[in-house]
Amino acid sequence: MAKGLPGIPLQDRLIVALDLPESDAIELVGKLQPSVNTFKVGLQLIVSSGGMGVVERLGELGARVFLDLKMFDIPETVIQSLNQIQTRHRHIVFTTIHAFSRGLEGALKFRDASNSLKILVVTLLTSMDHTDLTDIGIEKNVMDFVMAQTRRAADAGCDGVIASGLEAKVIRKEFENLLIVTPGIRPAWAQVPNDDQKRVTTPREAIINGADYLVIGRPIYRNPLGNDPREAVRRILDEIAAAIDERDASSASAVG
Ligand code: C5P
After folding, report:
1. Residue 119 has what pLDDT?
2. Is residue 11 a contact partner of residue 218, using CB atoms and an 8 Å limit?
3. How far apart are CA 161 and CA 178, in angstroms?
4. What is the C-alpha to C-alpha distance for residues 221 and 211, in angstroms, rounded to an integer?
Protein backbone atom coordinates (compact mmCIF):
# COMPACT_ATOMS: atom_id res chain seq x y z
CA MET A 1 0.00 0.00 0.00
CA ALA A 2 1.38 3.45 -0.89
CA LYS A 3 1.34 6.51 1.34
CA GLY A 4 -0.45 9.67 0.21
CA LEU A 5 0.00 13.29 1.18
CA PRO A 6 -1.51 13.99 4.61
CA GLY A 7 -3.73 16.87 5.69
CA ILE A 8 -6.08 17.09 2.72
CA PRO A 9 -9.72 17.45 3.89
CA LEU A 10 -11.97 14.63 2.65
CA GLN A 11 -14.29 16.96 0.75
CA ASP A 12 -11.31 18.40 -1.20
CA ARG A 13 -10.13 14.98 -2.32
CA LEU A 14 -13.03 14.63 -4.74
CA ILE A 15 -12.92 16.95 -7.75
CA VAL A 16 -16.05 16.82 -9.87
CA ALA A 17 -15.45 17.23 -13.62
CA LEU A 18 -18.08 19.57 -15.06
CA ASP A 19 -18.17 18.16 -18.60
CA LEU A 20 -21.69 19.47 -19.08
CA PRO A 21 -23.51 22.42 -20.66
CA GLU A 22 -23.14 25.57 -18.51
CA SER A 23 -26.66 25.60 -17.01
CA ASP A 24 -26.45 21.90 -16.09
CA ALA A 25 -22.97 22.44 -14.64
CA ILE A 26 -24.09 25.30 -12.40
CA GLU A 27 -27.17 23.33 -11.31
CA LEU A 28 -24.95 20.38 -10.40
CA VAL A 29 -22.63 22.61 -8.36
CA GLY A 30 -25.67 23.87 -6.44
CA LYS A 31 -26.71 20.28 -5.70
CA LEU A 32 -23.26 19.10 -4.60
CA GLN A 33 -22.02 22.01 -2.47
CA PRO A 34 -20.96 21.83 0.32
CA SER A 35 -20.24 18.06 0.17
CA VAL A 36 -17.87 18.83 -2.71
CA ASN A 37 -16.31 22.20 -3.39
CA THR A 38 -13.70 21.68 -6.12
CA PHE A 39 -14.93 21.55 -9.69
CA LYS A 40 -13.01 20.90 -12.88
CA VAL A 41 -13.68 23.16 -15.84
CA GLY A 42 -12.32 21.88 -19.13
CA LEU A 43 -12.45 22.80 -22.78
CA GLN A 44 -15.94 21.41 -23.33
CA LEU A 45 -17.49 23.78 -20.80
CA ILE A 46 -15.38 26.79 -21.76
CA VAL A 47 -16.13 26.62 -25.48
CA SER A 48 -19.82 25.88 -24.96
CA SER A 49 -20.39 28.72 -22.49
CA GLY A 50 -19.36 32.32 -22.08
CA GLY A 51 -15.72 31.28 -21.92
CA MET A 52 -14.01 32.11 -18.66
CA GLY A 53 -17.29 33.61 -17.38
CA VAL A 54 -18.19 30.20 -16.03
CA VAL A 55 -14.99 30.20 -13.96
CA GLU A 56 -15.94 33.62 -12.52
CA ARG A 57 -19.41 32.28 -11.71
CA LEU A 58 -17.93 29.35 -9.81
CA GLY A 59 -15.80 31.81 -7.85
CA GLU A 60 -18.94 33.76 -6.91
CA LEU A 61 -20.42 30.48 -5.66
CA GLY A 62 -17.41 30.01 -3.40
CA ALA A 63 -16.07 27.02 -5.35
CA ARG A 64 -12.46 26.08 -5.94
CA VAL A 65 -11.69 25.56 -9.62
CA PHE A 66 -9.46 23.11 -11.43
CA LEU A 67 -8.91 24.73 -14.83
CA ASP A 68 -8.07 21.81 -17.10
CA LEU A 69 -6.61 23.47 -20.19
CA LYS A 70 -3.96 20.78 -20.82
CA MET A 71 -1.74 23.50 -22.24
CA PHE A 72 0.68 22.35 -24.88
CA ASP A 73 2.36 25.31 -26.52
CA ILE A 74 5.67 27.13 -26.75
CA PRO A 75 7.11 27.99 -23.32
CA GLU A 76 6.43 31.74 -23.59
CA THR A 77 2.72 31.22 -24.33
CA VAL A 78 2.34 28.75 -21.49
CA ILE A 79 4.23 31.01 -19.06
CA GLN A 80 2.10 34.07 -19.95
CA SER A 81 -1.10 32.03 -19.64
CA LEU A 82 -0.08 30.67 -16.24
CA ASN A 83 0.73 34.21 -15.09
CA GLN A 84 -2.71 35.42 -16.17
CA ILE A 85 -4.40 32.57 -14.33
CA GLN A 86 -2.56 33.19 -11.11
CA THR A 87 -3.06 36.94 -11.09
CA ARG A 88 -6.66 37.13 -12.32
CA HIS A 89 -8.32 34.08 -10.79
CA ARG A 90 -7.31 33.46 -7.21
CA HIS A 91 -9.85 30.65 -6.76
CA ILE A 92 -8.26 28.49 -9.47
CA VAL A 93 -6.36 25.95 -7.43
CA PHE A 94 -5.15 23.56 -10.15
CA THR A 95 -4.28 23.86 -13.81
CA THR A 96 -2.72 21.45 -16.29
CA ILE A 97 0.12 21.48 -18.76
CA HIS A 98 -0.36 18.76 -21.30
CA ALA A 99 3.25 18.03 -22.03
CA PHE A 100 6.49 19.42 -20.93
CA SER A 101 8.97 21.43 -22.95
CA ARG A 102 12.29 22.77 -21.77
CA GLY A 103 12.20 26.45 -20.95
CA LEU A 104 9.27 26.32 -18.54
CA GLU A 105 11.43 25.48 -15.54
CA GLY A 106 12.10 29.13 -14.65
CA ALA A 107 8.45 30.08 -14.71
CA LEU A 108 7.49 27.14 -12.58
CA LYS A 109 10.23 27.61 -10.00
CA PHE A 110 9.88 31.33 -9.53
CA ARG A 111 6.14 31.76 -9.82
CA ASP A 112 4.19 33.79 -7.28
CA ALA A 113 4.78 31.93 -4.02
CA SER A 114 1.79 33.58 -2.35
CA ASN A 115 -0.58 31.95 -4.83
CA SER A 116 -2.20 28.61 -4.17
CA LEU A 117 -2.26 27.61 -7.85
CA LYS A 118 -0.84 24.12 -8.32
CA ILE A 119 0.56 23.22 -11.71
CA LEU A 120 0.02 19.63 -12.77
CA VAL A 121 1.51 17.75 -15.70
CA VAL A 122 -0.68 15.38 -17.67
CA THR A 123 1.52 12.30 -17.96
CA LEU A 124 -0.66 10.28 -20.34
CA LEU A 125 -4.41 10.63 -20.87
CA THR A 126 -6.28 7.90 -19.03
CA SER A 127 -8.12 7.19 -22.28
CA MET A 128 -4.81 5.99 -23.79
CA ASP A 129 -3.09 2.63 -23.48
CA HIS A 130 -0.04 0.88 -24.93
CA THR A 131 -1.60 0.57 -28.40
CA ASP A 132 -2.23 4.32 -28.51
CA LEU A 133 1.40 4.99 -27.55
CA THR A 134 2.62 2.64 -30.29
CA ASP A 135 0.31 4.38 -32.79
CA ILE A 136 2.05 7.70 -32.18
CA GLY A 137 5.50 6.13 -32.46
CA ILE A 138 6.37 5.89 -28.76
CA GLU A 139 8.12 2.64 -27.94
CA LYS A 140 7.96 2.88 -24.14
CA ASN A 141 5.32 0.96 -22.22
CA VAL A 142 2.72 2.99 -20.33
CA MET A 143 4.46 2.81 -16.95
CA ASP A 144 7.86 3.85 -18.33
CA PHE A 145 6.31 6.70 -20.30
CA VAL A 146 4.32 7.97 -17.30
CA MET A 147 7.43 7.77 -15.10
CA ALA A 148 9.57 9.64 -17.66
CA GLN A 149 6.93 12.42 -17.79
CA THR A 150 6.71 12.45 -13.98
CA ARG A 151 10.48 12.80 -13.56
CA ARG A 152 10.53 15.74 -15.99
CA ALA A 153 7.61 17.37 -14.16
CA ALA A 154 9.33 16.94 -10.79
CA ASP A 155 12.70 18.20 -12.07
CA ALA A 156 11.02 21.31 -13.42
CA GLY A 157 9.34 22.12 -10.11
CA CYS A 158 5.73 21.23 -10.99
CA ASP A 159 3.46 20.55 -8.03
CA GLY A 160 2.14 17.25 -9.27
CA VAL A 161 1.01 14.96 -12.02
CA ILE A 162 -2.18 13.64 -13.49
CA ALA A 163 -1.88 9.88 -13.71
CA SER A 164 -4.15 6.87 -13.50
CA GLY A 165 -4.51 4.87 -10.31
CA LEU A 166 -2.56 2.09 -12.02
CA GLU A 167 0.64 4.15 -12.01
CA ALA A 168 0.09 5.97 -8.71
CA LYS A 169 1.90 3.37 -6.63
CA VAL A 170 5.13 3.50 -8.64
CA ILE A 171 5.02 7.32 -8.75
CA ARG A 172 4.49 7.55 -4.98
CA LYS A 173 7.37 5.17 -4.32
CA GLU A 174 9.80 7.50 -6.11
CA PHE A 175 8.20 10.86 -5.23
CA GLU A 176 6.95 11.14 -1.68
CA ASN A 177 5.82 14.77 -1.95
CA LEU A 178 4.46 15.08 -5.48
CA LEU A 179 0.69 15.56 -5.79
CA ILE A 180 -0.99 12.71 -7.64
CA VAL A 181 -4.32 13.65 -9.18
CA THR A 182 -6.18 10.71 -10.67
CA PRO A 183 -8.94 10.61 -13.30
CA GLY A 184 -10.21 7.41 -14.96
CA ILE A 185 -12.10 6.55 -11.77
CA ARG A 186 -14.88 4.01 -12.09
CA PRO A 187 -16.60 2.91 -8.86
CA ALA A 188 -17.68 -0.75 -8.97
CA TRP A 189 -21.33 0.32 -9.23
CA ALA A 190 -20.76 2.79 -12.09
CA GLN A 191 -21.43 1.96 -15.69
CA VAL A 192 -20.61 4.69 -18.17
CA PRO A 193 -22.15 4.02 -21.60
CA ASN A 194 -19.59 3.99 -24.45
CA ASP A 195 -16.81 4.61 -21.97
CA ASP A 196 -13.62 6.04 -23.48
CA GLN A 197 -11.48 5.61 -20.36
CA LYS A 198 -8.99 2.73 -20.57
CA ARG A 199 -6.68 2.95 -17.52
CA VAL A 200 -9.37 2.83 -14.86
CA THR A 201 -9.43 2.12 -11.13
CA THR A 202 -12.03 2.29 -8.38
CA PRO A 203 -11.78 5.14 -5.85
CA ARG A 204 -10.41 2.66 -3.29
CA GLU A 205 -7.71 1.31 -5.61
CA ALA A 206 -6.55 4.81 -6.56
CA ILE A 207 -6.31 5.97 -2.94
CA ILE A 208 -4.64 2.78 -1.74
CA ASN A 209 -2.07 3.22 -4.52
CA GLY A 210 -1.22 6.73 -3.30
CA ALA A 211 -3.50 9.13 -5.19
CA ASP A 212 -4.21 12.41 -3.36
CA TYR A 213 -7.15 13.74 -5.36
CA LEU A 214 -9.68 11.96 -7.59
CA VAL A 215 -11.27 13.60 -10.63
CA ILE A 216 -14.65 12.09 -11.42
CA GLY A 217 -17.29 13.14 -13.94
CA ARG A 218 -19.72 10.77 -15.62
CA PRO A 219 -20.10 8.25 -12.78
CA ILE A 220 -21.59 11.15 -10.78
CA TYR A 221 -24.06 12.58 -13.25
CA ARG A 222 -24.62 9.64 -15.60
CA ASN A 223 -24.92 6.88 -13.10
CA PRO A 224 -27.22 3.93 -12.59
CA LEU A 225 -28.32 5.04 -9.09
CA GLY A 226 -31.51 6.69 -10.27
CA ASN A 227 -29.36 9.59 -11.46
CA ASP A 228 -29.03 11.29 -8.10
CA PRO A 229 -25.56 12.86 -8.15
CA ARG A 230 -25.70 13.49 -4.38
CA GLU A 231 -26.04 9.77 -3.70
CA ALA A 232 -23.14 9.02 -6.07
CA VAL A 233 -20.97 11.61 -4.29
CA ARG A 234 -21.91 10.24 -0.87
CA ARG A 235 -20.90 6.73 -1.91
CA ILE A 236 -17.63 7.93 -3.44
CA LEU A 237 -16.69 10.02 -0.37
CA ASP A 238 -17.45 7.03 1.88
CA GLU A 239 -15.22 4.84 -0.28
CA ILE A 240 -12.40 7.43 -0.22
CA ALA A 241 -12.66 7.83 3.57
CA ALA A 242 -12.54 4.04 4.12
CA ALA A 243 -9.54 3.70 1.77
CA ILE A 244 -7.66 6.48 3.58
CA ASP A 245 -8.25 4.74 6.90
CA GLU A 246 -7.03 1.48 5.38
CA ARG A 247 -3.95 3.21 3.93
CA ASP A 248 -3.14 4.99 7.21
CA ALA A 249 -3.57 1.78 9.22
CA SER A 250 -1.25 -0.07 6.87
CA SER A 251 1.49 2.63 7.07
CA ALA A 252 1.14 2.74 10.87
CA SER A 253 1.59 -1.04 11.13
CA ALA A 254 4.58 -0.88 8.72
CA VAL A 255 6.22 1.73 11.02
CA GLY A 256 5.27 0.02 14.31
O1 C5P B 1 -16.30 11.40 -16.90
P2 C5P B 1 -14.94 10.97 -16.40
O3 C5P B 1 -14.95 10.51 -14.96
O4 C5P B 1 -14.25 9.99 -17.32
O5 C5P B 1 -14.10 12.33 -16.43
C6 C5P B 1 -12.72 12.37 -16.27
C7 C5P B 1 -12.25 13.78 -16.45
O8 C5P B 1 -10.84 13.79 -16.25
C9 C5P B 1 -12.51 14.37 -17.84
O10 C5P B 1 -12.93 15.71 -17.63
C11 C5P B 1 -11.17 14.36 -18.54
O12 C5P B 1 -10.97 15.47 -19.36
C13 C5P B 1 -10.20 14.41 -17.37
N14 C5P B 1 -8.89 13.84 -17.60
C15 C5P B 1 -8.69 12.52 -17.95
N16 C5P B 1 -7.42 12.02 -18.15
C17 C5P B 1 -6.37 12.82 -17.99
C18 C5P B 1 -6.55 14.16 -17.63
C19 C5P B 1 -7.84 14.63 -17.43
O20 C5P B 1 -9.67 11.77 -18.05
N21 C5P B 1 -5.15 12.33 -18.11
Report:
1. 92
2. no
3. 7
4. 22
Work out the angle between the directed axes of helices 22-32 and 229-255 (0-180°, nearest 10).
60
User: How is 89-107 classified by DSSP, letter by letter?
Assistant: -TTEEEEEESS--TT-HHH
Which one is catalytic: 3, 70, 140, 169? Answer: 70
> 0.85 exceeded by the pTM?
yes
Query: Nearest residue CA, atom 10 of ligand 1?
Result: 17
10-residue mean pLDDT profile of the chain (256 residues): values are 82 97 96 97 90 94 96 86 87 86 66 79 92 93 94 89 96 96 95 87 97 97 83 97 93 69
122 lines ligand 1 (CB under 6 A): yes
Residue 118 falls in the annotated catalytic set: no
Confirm or reject: Cβ of 153 under 6 Å from ligand 1: no
Residue nearest to atom 9 of ligand 1 (CA): 17
Spell out the domain ranges in the chain: 10-255
Separation of CA 71 and ligand 1 centre (Å):
15
Distance from C-alpha of 172 to C-alpha of 210, rounded to nearest angstrom = 6
Atom of ligand 1 nearest to the CA of 122: 21
Q: Which CATH superfamily is domain 10-255 in?
A: Aldolase class I (3.20.20.70)
Task: Give the pLDDT score at 253.
Answer: 76
End-to-end CA distance of the chain: 15
CA dist., res. 219 & res. 16, Å (int)? 10
197 pocket-lining for ligand 1 (C-beta < 6 Å): yes
